[in-house]
Specification:
The chain is α+β, with helices and mostly antiparallel strands. The chain folds into two domains: 53 residues; 146 residues, Alpha-Beta Plaits, CATH 3.30.70.270. 61% of the residues lie in helices and 15% in strands. The chain contains seven helices and six strands. Strands 2-3-1-6 form a four-stranded antiparallel beta sheet, with helices on both faces. Strands 4-5 form a two-stranded antiparallel ribbon. Helix 4 crosses helix 5. The protein starts with a helix and ends with a helix. The mean pLDDT is 85.
């Protein structure tokens, strides 16, 4: 995708061409001038849409980036607190990413993140927003559903990730923390704290099981 400066430079050049067309209106028909201006406008709209997509998309995973998910979550949280309704979040942690990086290489670690991202994309609803939160963590914002309904999404993701491996050797697993906005929640931080604690407890149980 072209860099923003390249697009602006090209549009400036095309604009000069359009100005030339308009200045020669005596030799161009009215329909030809209108057609050229219409094509120019369509191209601008298309490339602005590409720029917007680039600005909200995480380059590696293809999910939205953290900046956009922050904006979306704040907007939805504010809406719920004003008007009521349901809003759940899902925190997902790709287990043993450090082990994968150390034993299979960082490229395979990236592949593991991409595989998980693709599974997440395939299982969420159109109204949900999923993002690469950072490192081995992903966030899914789920408007309009409670925590139990969000758990169904997580279970589908966990079921699919079980059949995913790195180099046909290392199986992938995830841990999760799911919660919904409660009436007493005063900020998004409280929501995240609760989801993080649930995720931490799940990882703790997994570790205890391995050590037995």
């Amino acid at each position: 995708m072209p860099h923003k400066k390249e697009i602006v430079k090209r549009k400036e050049k095309e604009l000069k061409e359009i100005e030339t067309i308009v200045s020669q209106i005596g030799t161009w028909s009215h329909e030809e001038v209108i057609g050229a201006l219409r094509d120019f406008a369509r191209e601008i709209v298309r490339e602005l849409a590409e720029l917007r997509e680039k600005n909200i998309t995480h380059e590696l995973t293809g999910l939205t980036n953290r900046r956009f998910s922050d904006f979306f979550l704040k907007r939805e949280f504010g809406r719920i607190k004003r008007y009521g309704g349901r809003l759940s979040i899902i925190l997902i942690d790709l287990d043993e990413l450090k082990f994968i990086n150390d034993h299979y290489g960082y490229l395979e670690g990236d592949h593991a993140l991409i595989k998980l991202a693709n599974i997440i994309k395939s299982q969420i609803r159109e109204s949900d927003v999923a993002c690469h939160w950072g490192g081995d963590e992903f966030l899914i914002v789920c408007p309009g559903i409670n925590a139990k309904q969000a758990e169904i999404i997580v279970e589908r993701i966990k079921k699919m990730i079980k059949n995913t491996k790195i180099k046909d050797e290392k199986g992938l697993t995830i841990s999760s923390g799911v919660t919904e906005v409660r009436g007493e929640d005063r900020s998004i931080k409280e929501l995240f704290h609760r989801a993080n604690e649930i995720l931490r407890q799940e990882k703790k149980r997994k570790k205890a099981t391995i050590e037995q």
